[in-house]
Amino acid sequence: MEVVIVPDAMAGGELIAETMAALVRRKPDALLGVATGSTPLPVYEALTAKVRAGAVDVSRVRICQLDEYVGLPSGHPESYRSTVLRQVVEPLGLTEDSFLGPDGTARDVPAACAAYDRALAEAGGVDLQLLGIGTDGHIGFNEPCSSLASRTRIKTLTRQTREDNARFFDHDIEQVPHHVITQGIGTIMEARHLVLLATGEGKAEAVARSVEGPVAAVCPASALQLHPHATVVVDEAAASRLRLADYFRDTYAAKPSWQGL
Q1: Do residues 140 and 148 lie in contact, with contact meaning Cβ atoms separated by under 8 Å?
Q2: What does the pLDDT look like over 9-67, one tens digit per residue?
Q3: Which among 48, 35, 45 is positioned nearest to 83, based on CA atoms?
Q4: Secondary structure string (H, E, C) spanning 156-174
Q5: Local structure of residue 219 (DSSP, 8 states)
Q6: Which Pfam families does the UniProt entry name for this protein (predicted)?
């Protein structure tokens, strides 16, 4: 696993945005997997700035969704579809035609999950999947003890995750749905490049367990250790519990600039 320690969230956002831009320059119709929440916002802001400056043409880029709440009405402002459209698709000048996501309003949710896995495969697979990490080590909504071979499926959220997400629902946990559709760990691991961004001291323990701990279902993000091209980008606060932090700094500093992430 490649670990890159950056000074702050803005530096992490710029680094990942340039990685995405470099991918799009090589493959104009790349399928980019995006995450929601506050952590990846610097990535989207930096990528949008590059597009507006004419540094990269994203007109053929496709965007896909990592997860979705079950049961929120279509167009609900806190559905992940609405969030991705608002934060990523529209600022990049793309249309909904470029966007793939699971149907959280489907009557047959298991069928919708299977359909989304098929859609990703038919699209040629995800070229780069951006991930966040929960304080308990979850990725997507694969909570602790999720199968490391799991596919896109419905999951019940833990109370901790609902409490963490209540800030998006007027700090009212009762408004946070109990269920989500999420790409499974097995689905996530099929992306060609996984990039996990973590910032802040609150993520330090989860990062350390994911990077330096054993591969175990109790820490879902530890599965990234098994991926052939996984990059973890962390600020100094999120890196504060890494025993090998100095090694990671030296390794990245010695990496040829042309190689990228």
Answers
A1: no
A2: 999 999 999 999 999 999 999 999 999 989 999 999 999 999 999 999 999 999 999 99
A3: 35
A4: ECCHHHHHHHHHHHCCCHH
A5: B
A6: Glucosamine_iso (PF01182)
Q: Is there a contact between 166 and 78 (Cβ–Cβ < 8 Å)? A: no
Beta pairing, strands 153-156 & 179-182: antiparallel
At a CB cut-off of 8 Å and minimum separation 6, what does 239 contact?
Answer: 3, 5, 204, 207, 245, 248
Q: Tens digits of per-residue pLDDT, 55-105? A: 999 999 999 999 999 999 878 999 999 999 999 999 999 999 999 999 999
3-state secondary structure of 131: strand
With beta carbons less than 8 A apart as the criterion, state whether 67 and 182 touch: yes
Q: Maximum CA pair distance of the chain?
A: 53
Residues 6+ apart with CB under 8 A from 139: 131, 132, 133, 185, 188, 196, 220, 221, 223, 224
What are the residue numbers of the active site? 67, 136, 138, 143
For residues 212 and 243, is the Cβ–Cβ distance under 8 A?
A: yes
Which strand (E) or helix (H) includes residue 64?
Answer: strand 62-65
The CATH code that applies to domain 2-253 is: 3.40.50.1360
Structure-token match 């035609």, residue found: 97
Helix spans in 103-184 (H):
109-122, 159-165
Domain ranges (residues) in the chain: 2-253
Rg from Cα positions in the chain: 17
